[in-house]
Design goal:
heterodimer; A: about 425 residues; mainly alpha; ABC transporter involved in vitamin B12 uptake, BtuC; two-stranded antiparallel ribbon; 16 helices; about 70% helix; disordered N terminus; B: about 260 residues; alpha/beta; Rossmann fold; 6-stranded mixed sheet; 4-stranded antiparallel sheet; 14 strands; globular
Chain lengths: ~425, ~260
C-alpha cells in the first residue's frame, strides 16, 4: 500500500460537474421564477412599490410626475438612502442600530460647529463629522461585541444619549446655519447637463465592461456563465433607466424666466459612488464575505477562523460613519443643523429603506442597493402624501404600515425558504 | 504496511479531578478508515478534540508520519493536515457551496476575491469525490438536503491538503439513502489515500466502511482490531464491557 498523502484533488484534471444549463433563456426565467416562489424575492417588492406609488400619486396629483418633483424626490431621498446603506451592514449581522439617526445628528452638529463657529474649510468639517461617526461606531461595536450587551439595548441607550449630545453641542437648542457653499451644494445644486450625460454614459459603459469581462473570464475557464441575452438585458435596462433619468433631470424645471434650474442633483453621483464602494466591499472582498458569514452562522464563521468580534465592530463603525455622511446631507438640505437633525423618524426611514429594499431583519441577507431602492419607495410616500396634502398624522401611520408590510414580506420569505429546503 | 500517519501513545487527559482519557493509544493509517467507537462518555469526543488541538493533552506522545509533533490549537492541527468535520456541520446557510468551502481561507487576487479559481477548485474537489448529487456549486447551502450538506462539509475538509479527516457521527441525522451516499464518500476518501477516522454509534456503518475498529471503554482504549477479524457481537461486547474473550482490557484483578 502506498503512503502518498498529497491531496489528489488540487491537481485534479479538467473535471466538471454535469452542466446545469437546461433550456437556455427559458430555463433561466424558470429558475428565476422558482427563486421568487421559494422566498428569494430580491428587489421585486421595492420595484413594484415604486411603480405602484408612481401610478397612484400621479393619478392623485399630476404634479407628482414632473421633472421638478423628480429632482426634489432624489434630493429628499439622499439622507435616508445613505443612512439605510449603513444600516444594511448592521442588519446583515442580525443586529440593529437604533442610535444611527441621532448619531447622524451629532455628526451634523460637529460639522456645523467646525464650519460656522470655527470657520474651518469644508473638508475639515466633513472629516471631523466622519471621524465622530467612526468613534461612535467603535464605542457601540465594542459594547456589543466585546462586552456582550444586545445591540438593541446598546443602541437604545445611544439613541437617548446622542439626543442629549446634540442638545449639548447646540447649546440647548439653538440652531446653527451652514453657509459653506460646497456643503450646501450637495443637496441644493445640480450638475451641468453635459456632465450629467457624461456621468450617465460612464456608469453604463463601466457596468457593461465589468459584466462582459466577468462573463468572458468565466467562459474561458469553462465555468457556467450567464446567457448573453441576460447580460444584454441588464446593460440595456440600465442604459434606458439612466438615459430617461438624465434626460428628465436635464429639462428646464424653473418656472421663472430669470434663472435656469436643470441638471442632475449633485447628491446623485455622491450616492452612486457610495453604492459602488460598499457593493464592491460586500461582494468582492473577503471582509464582505465574512460579514455575510457572521450574519448567517456566527459559530461556523468562528470555526472557519474569522475574527468575529472584529467583523461585528467594523459593521457598527461603517454604519455610524455612513450615518455621519447622512447627517452631512441632512445639514446641507436644511442649510442648518438644529436639535431635530437626525431625530424624529429619520432612523425609522433608514431602517425601512433597507428592509423594503429586501434586506432581512434576521441577518445574512441584503445588499447596499436595497437601501437605494427602499429609500426611493419611502421618499415617494413622504413626498407624494405631502403633495396630496395629507397631514403628518396620516404620513406617520402610512410609513409605519409600509415598514410593517416590508417586515412581513421579509418574515414570509424567510419561512418560505426554510420550508422549501 | 508503512508508517502510520497518526500515532498516539499513552495519551492522558483530565478535566480537573476527572480523568477522561487514560493511557490511550491509537494508530491511523493512510488509505484506511478507522472507526472510533465507544459508549456515551467513553471519551470519543475528547480524544478527537485532543487530536484536533482544541484540548491540549496532559501527557503522551502525538506522532504524525512517525515524527513527534506538538499540537496546541486547531491551527497547529490544520498545519499537520488534520481536519475535523463536526456533527453540527458548521456551514453558513446564506452562502453558496463555493463560499462555504473557502470560508475563512478565500483565494484572492490582490484585494479582490478570485471567484473563478475558487469555483473551479470546488468543482474539481466535488468531482474528485465523485459527488453527483449537487446541481450547481453556486447553490445556496440552505437549499441542500442533509446528505448534501454533509458532503459539502466533507469536501470542505478535503480541500485543504488534508491528510487526516475526522468525521464526527456523519450519518447520525440522515435517512437510509443519504447515509449510503455519505458512507460511499467516506470509503472514497480512504481509497484516494487519505486517513479517515469515523466516529459512529451505528454498527452497520462501522462494518460497512471501516478497515480498523478502535473501541474506547471508560476512557481507555479497549482494543484496536482489524474489522475483518471481529464479529458484530464481539464489538458490542468491547463497547459495553471493554473486553471480549481474549480481546480487550485485562481485568484489573486478574493480573494480580
Amino acid at each position: 500500500m502506498s503512503t502518498t498523502t498529497t491531496n489528489p484533488y488540487e491537481t485534479g484534471e479538467k473535471v466538471a460537474l454535469p452542466a446545469k444549463d437546461d433550456g437556455g433563456l427559458w430555463g433561466y426565467l424558470r429558475s428565476y421564477g422558482q427563486r421568487v416562489r421559494g422566498g428569494d424575492m430580491g428587489a421585486l417588492p421595492a420595484v413594484l412599490g415604486i411603480i405602484v406609488l408612481s401610478i397612484v400619486f400621479s393619478a392623485a396629483r399630476p404634479s407628482f410626475l414632473t421633472p421638478l418633483n423628480f429632482a426634489n424626490l432624489l434630493t429628499q431621498a439622499g439622507p435616508i438612502v445613505v443612512l439605510g446603506m449603513g444600516l444594511v451592514f448592521v442588519l446583515l449581522l442580525g443586529e440593529i442600530d437604533l442610535s444611527a439617526g441621532f448619531a447622524s445628528g451629532v455628526c451634523a452638529a460637529v460639522l456645523a460647529i467646525m464650519l460656522t463657529t470655527h470657520g474651518f474649510p469644508w473638508y475639515v468639517g466633513v472629516l471631523a463629522a466622519i471621524v465622530t461617526g467612526v468613534v461612535i461606531g467603535l464605542l457601540l461595536g465594542f459594547l456589543v461585541a466585546k462586552v456582550g450587551i444586545p445591540s438593541f439595548v446598546v443602541t437604545l441607550a445611544g439613541f437617548l444619549a446622542f439626543q442629549g449630545t446634540v442638545l449639548w453641542l447646540l447649546k440647548e437648542g439653538t440652531n446653527i446655519s451652514i453657509r459653506d457653499e460646497v456643503i450646501i451644494s450637495l443637496e441644493n445644486e445640480y450638475l451641468p447637463p453635459t456632465v450629467g450625460w457624461a456621468l450617465g454614459a460612464l456608469t453604463v459603459l463601466g457596468f457593461a465592461a465589468t459584466q462582459l469581462i466577468q462573463q468572458r473570464n468565466r467562459r474561458r475557464r469553462g465555468l457556467p456563465a450567464l446567457l448573453w441575452q441576460v447580460v444584454t438585458f441588464r446593460v440595456v435596462g440600465l442604459a434606458v433607466l439612466v438615459g430617461i433619468a438624465v434626460a428628465v433631470l436635464n429639462e428646464e424645471r424653473s418656472r421663472n424666466a430669470l434663472f435656469s434650474l436643470k441638471g442632475v442633483p449633485i447628491v446623485v453621483p455622491v450616492i452612486g459612488v457610495l453604492l459602488l464602494l460598499w457593493t464592491f466591499v460586500l461582494r468582492r472582498t473577503a471582509f464582505g464575505r465574512h460579514i455575510y458569514a457572521v450574519g448567517g452562522n456566527r459559530e461556523a464563521a468562528r470555526r472557519a477562523g474569522i475574527a468575529v468580534d472584529r467583523i461585528r465592530i467594523s459593521a457598527f463603525v461603517i454604519c455610524s460613519a455612513m450615518a455621519a455622511v447622512s447627517g452631512i446631507l441632512a445639514a446641507s438640505m436644511a442649510r442648518s443643523v438644529d436639535p431635530n437633525t437626525g431625530g424624529s423618524n429619520v432612523l425609522l426611514y433608514g431602517v425601512a429603506a433597507a428592509v423594503i429594499g429586501g434586506t432581512s431583519l434576521f441577518g445574512g441577507k441584503g445588499r447596499v442597493l436595497d437601501a437605494v431602492l427602499g429609500g426611493l419607495v419611502i421618499t415617494m410616500i413622504i413626498n407624494g402624501m405631502g403633495l396630496v396634502g395629507w397631514s403628518s398624522a396620516y404620513k406617520y401611520v402610512a410609513t409605519g404600515i409600509v415598514l410593517l408590510l416590508a417586515a412581513s414580506v421579509d418574515a414570509f420569505s424567510r419561512r418560505r425558504s426554510a420550508a422549501s429546503s | 504496511m508503512g508508517t502510520p500517519l497518526l500515532e498516539l501513545r499513552g495519551i492522558n487527559k483530565s478535566f480537573g479531578p476527572v480523568q477522561v482519557l487514560r493511557d490511550v493509544a491509537l494508530t491511523v493509517h493512510p488509505g484506511e478508515v478507522t472507526a472510533l467507537i465507544g459508549d456515551n462518555g467513553a471519551g470519543k469526543s475528547t480524544l478527537v478534540k485532543c487530536i484536533g488541538g482544541i484540548y491540549p493533552i496532559d501527557s503522551g506522545e502525538y506522532l504524525m508520519e512517525g515524527k513527534p509533533v506538538h499540537v496546541h490549537n486547531p491551527r497547529d492541527a490544520a498545519s499537520h493536515g488534520v481536519e475535523i468535520v463536526y456533527q453540527d456541520l458548521a456551514l453558513c446557510d446564506n452562502l453558496d457551496i463555493v463560499q462555504n468551502m473557502f470560508l475563512g481561507r478565500e483565494k484572492k487576487s490582490g484585494m479582490i476575491l478570485d471567484e473563478p479559481t475558487m469555483e473551479q477548485l470546488a468543482q474539481q474537489t466535488l468531482a474528485g469525490l465523485s459527488v453527483r448529487t449537487v446541481k450547481s456549486v453556486r447553490q445556496q447551502v440552505s437549499s441542500l438536503s442533509g446528505g448534501q450538506r454533509q458532503t459539502v462539509a466533507i469536501a470542505k475538509a478535503v480541500l485543504w491538503n488534508s491528510k487526516l479527516v475526522i468525521l464526527d457521527e456523519p450519518t447520525a441525522a440522515l435517512g437510509v439513502a443519504q447515509t449510503q451516499q455519505v458512507l460511499e464518500l467516506v470509503r472514497r476518501l480512504a481509497d484516494n489515500g487519505l486517513a479517515v477516522v469515523l466516529i459512529s454509534h451505528n454498527m452497520n456503518d462501522v462494518f460497512a466502511v471501516s478497515d480498523q475498529i478502535a473501541a474506547l471503554y471508560l476512557g481507555r482504549m479497549a482494543a484496536q482490531v482489524k474489522t475483518s477479524d471481529v464479529t458484530h457481537s464481539q464489538v458490542v461486547e468491547l463497547i459495553t464491557s471493554g473486553r471480549s474473550g481474549t480481546l480487550g482490557l485485562v481485568e484489573e484483578g486478574a493480573a494480580a
